[in-house]
Amino acid sequence: MVIEKICCIGAGYVGGPTCSVLAYKCPNIKVTVCDRSKERIEQWNSPKLPIYEPGLDEIVKECRGRNLFFTTDLDPAIIEADLIFISVNTPTKTFGIGKGRAADLKFVEACSRKIASLSSGRKIVVEKSTVPVHAADSIINILTANTRPGVEFQVLSNPEFLAEGTAVQDLLNPDRVLIGGEQSDAGRQAVEDLCWVYQHWISRDKIITTNTWSSELSKLVANAFLAQRISSINAISALCEATGADVSEVAQATGMDSRIGSKFLQASVGFGGSCFQKDLLNLVYISECLKLTEVASYWQKVIDMNEYQKSRFAARIVERLFNTITDKTITILGFAFKKNTGDTRESPAIYVCKYLLEEGANLHIYDPKVEPKQMMTDLTSPMVSVDPEKVRELVKIYDDPYSAAAGAHAIVICTEWDEFVRLDYQKIYDTMLKPAFLFDGRKIVDHESVLEIGFHVETIGKRVTRSPLLRADPA
Ligand code: NAD
Ligand code: UDX
Prior knowledge:
Blueprint: E1 5-9, H1 15-25, E2 30-34, H2 38-44, H3 56-63, E3 68-71, H4 74-80, E4 83-86, H5 106-118, E5 122-127, H6 135-146, E6 152-157, H7 167-172, E7 177-181, H8 185-198, E8 207-211, H9 212-243, H10 247-255, H11 276-289, H12 293-320, E9 329-333, H13 348-358, E10 362-366, H14 372-379, H15 388-394, E11 395-398, H16 401-405, E12 410-413, H17 418-421, H18 425-431, E13 437-440, H19 447-453, E14 456-459
Parallel strand pairs: 1-2, 1-4, 2-3, 4-5, 5-6, 7-8, 9-10, 9-12, 10-11, 12-13, 13-14
Bound molecules: nicotinamide-adenine-dinucleotide and uridine-5'-diphosphate-xylopyranose.
């Protein structure tokens, strides 16, 4: 079957960029991206897109209104589509069975029911969302139980591997595309149909086809392995701080072994983002349900280490500031979970702020891309504080880093934005209270030069500060 019309349900961080690149590379295919959020769709149709991704504006500008459409009107888009991507959120369950660990598939199920009720003829339904293994079973069940005579569905798994901040590049030039399908003639044909779409810009040797369950599981495994590398190097960072080794040197020496590789060995305040923790928890839950206790506890440790790293860093701020930060002013540079995105989901900055707010600190926050409203929503959520009024009193949001740092006792770098590397730290130092502290949670500042300026410097996986008062030598 030739795919002429594609519908995508979910215009979020995955659905929006993925379908924009698809429309850009396949001008012969009409792509309609749907979302139930009116606000989000209005933003996709406006000059200011709802998400920040380098290179995305240009692509959307070129395709929008040509073969790329954003709408809340789901029904006609489903009816006319040959292929439907389900790209809705699959968050960790917050209640009921599997609370705090299992993936909540209610949005995926709602999409399946909608598709079943509207479809006629042959449709390919594609799981783009990250789901537990065998989620495709539930989708097929719902589709076949609700379908009318003459309708034929094929369900494929086609997980997305893009990372935020580099989504456009990742989509234009992916390491691989993974498509899982039913091991039958109709299943194989549907896989080939989706391969044809990707082959508009991706060579066939980069497209892997597997059975459905391998594809679903591979997505969780890829994220688990990436997160595991970060937790591994973060564990080593604690060892470096205790021994005087430098974690960057250790990472370089270790990563140059071609069997290990150098990527994802950047020690940090901890990993964030909407995927790693959620997908690890999901893997742990699946393993527990299958009574694979050791497997579950092995992967749980990756999350535990990440919690340890965040709390270790936050506790060090209090400790170095003479064990009290009540009424002190601390400047937080960076609130997004990584650079080049405005996304704050599971951002380590939220954890650090929560910790400092509980100790009664005043926070001055600056981030180049996160909307102030988003920061306040995050910090006043019940997960962070039981007293949102108090948070509003203690937190001030700034639109430039210099004003945010004026009069502060300490600066804490939580996101590795390039602009933080190039700041005029002398200018910042001059306006701060003394002794002035710099906590570099991303290891991006030239520590020697800020030490020269007069800062007391603390970072991850390396002893920097020279003051004997502030750092007793364990020897
Ligand atoms: P998101 O929250 O940004 O977007 C999901 C969108 O789906 C929302 O706008 C929501 O309004 C919409 N939606 C939910 N139910 C709907 C329904 N019934 N009808 C219409 N719209 C509906 O989520 P995201 O970050 O784009 O992630 C989507 C999926 O992709 C998740 O499963 C995630 O794990 C996976 N994923 C995310 C990333 C990432 O970097 N964010 C990368 C790879 C995979
Ligand atoms: C991740 C996966 O990389 C991507 O393939 C998947 O599709 C979605 O989840 P994302 O969460 O967008 O992507 O960003 P990523 O670059 O993986 O970073 C995740 C977190 O780990 C960030 O907080 C980042 O700062 C942190 N990180 C990353 C480190 O602390 N050290 C590293 O070496 C790499």
